Amino acid sequence: MKTLVDRIFSIQTEQDFNDCALEVYHFQKENVPVYKTFLELIDRPEPTHYSQIPHLPIAFFKTHQIIADGKSVQQVFKSSGTTGMVRSTHYVADVSIYERSFVPTYEQFLGKLEDQIIFALLPNYVSQGESSLVYMVDKLIEGTKNELSGYYLQDPENLLQAISRGRKTGKKLVLFGVSYALLDLAELKPDLHDVTIIETGGMKGKRKEMTKDEMHRELISGFGCEYIASEYGMCELLSQAYSDKNGVFELPSWMKISLREVNDPFGLVGVDKTGGVNVIDLANIYSCSFVETQDLGRIENGKLRLMGRFDHSDIRGCNLLVAN
Question: Which CATH code is given to the segment(s) 97-232?
């Protein structure tokens, strides 16, 4: 499998992706019991292209242990959520694959870690524990090798002082924040025009739900910055996407998005149509790489624009009710 993992992280062409995706599909079909049973029950034709591979509904991560036969659990990640909510659980067989995924992806879209200072405002994720986001941010902070990088959970003044000190270094300043904590900070009207702000979603029951556009407008007004970036990831996956100034998400080469019909999980929607987001994450080699999420989105010039979530989904992320 090491050779296949190496090939996954070396994908350059559409043919490379297709070959790897089909190989991962056949491996998981035979070695991941939950996915194997799912495929037997739906009885779909054998795929010859990655676009034909069936996606496992994400809800299975709440009810089943999804991991390849013969693999032991090295790390457990759980989704964030409100009190009393059943959290999804991702049983990770090889956490080094996660690191091999998120570090180059981050550097591809946001620059070299050694040239940055990273601040984290993620109180809910830290307090709940077993967060894949916290694991990732821990490693990114470590990669900056800067004493100012770190978590600033309930101390906005300390955070703003650290940002002020960081400016004097000439390094790029990055702030990861959960939505409600960023909104709390924005009420102080700090000048963060020169800080790259990455919101990770989630009101977590702390504030009223709002659309992502509304939230970003409030943050831009409060911080005086040009735009707010977003990170699209989830505990069930081992890869992330990051949004650009236009609010659309770019993906690493081993990750692809397709959109399904809202009322037909096997039908794909056309260009400029809203549909349910299906994710192929080939880094998820020892669990399931083909995941049917509860997000809604559109594809614009090969990039993903999130439109909200299905209205029967659990509270998670921005949770929009989308009519179009």
Answer: 3.40.35
